[in-house]
Write a structure and sequence with these properties.
The protein contains no helices and seven strands. By secondary structure, the chain is an all-beta fold.
């Protein structure tokens, strides 16, 4: 479960099914969006040195998104003036194989059977999501500390 916050210029906004509340003659100049979604990842991981106490790994895969709620704040151009517009969408639309995921990381196994993992990751949009079919990509850092029995 995640929340993606993003900004886009209007040139990337390309609605497949336009909001009926959007006037036909308006042009989206820019938008800020906050999208709540469920992410279903499928990933594979390769460990470079499984017998070491510390090891590097490479992981990759795909993610499917189910968008539950999208809140957009638009700057629009209509009738020769810029104005703002706010819209909320609750469509629960799914996007199969919407992103490609890649990460590389390091795991350190301690004597007390605990593991520290540091993993920078990137997610590349394969297709657009949401009302405007925007190609949302991201990056981040996952840090985890695991206890083993």
């Amino acid at each position: 479960i995640s929340e993606k916050k993003y900004y886009s210029s209007g040139k990337h906004f390309n609605p497949k099914d336009p909001d009926p509340n959007m006037p036909a003659d308006m042009k989206v100049v820019s938008l800020n969006s906050k999208t709540f979604l469920y992410e279903i990842p499928i990933r594979a991981k390769y460990d470079f040195n499984k017998k070491a106490k510390g090891q590097f790994f490479l992981a990759g895969g795909i993610s499917t998104f189910i968008v539950g709620n999208e809140v957009n704040d638009y700057i629009i151009y209509r009738n020769g003036i810029n104005s703002s517009m706010h819209a909320t969408y609750n469509k629960n639309k799914s996007y199969l194989v919407a992103a490609i995921d890649v990460s590389i990381g390091y795991e350190k196994l301690f004597k007390n059977k605990q593991t520290l993992r540091i993993e920078p990751w990137m997610q590349f949009a394969r297709k657009g999501i949401g009302v405007g079919q925007l190609p949302v990509s991201g990056f981040g850092l996952q840090v985890g500390y695991f206890f083993h029995k």
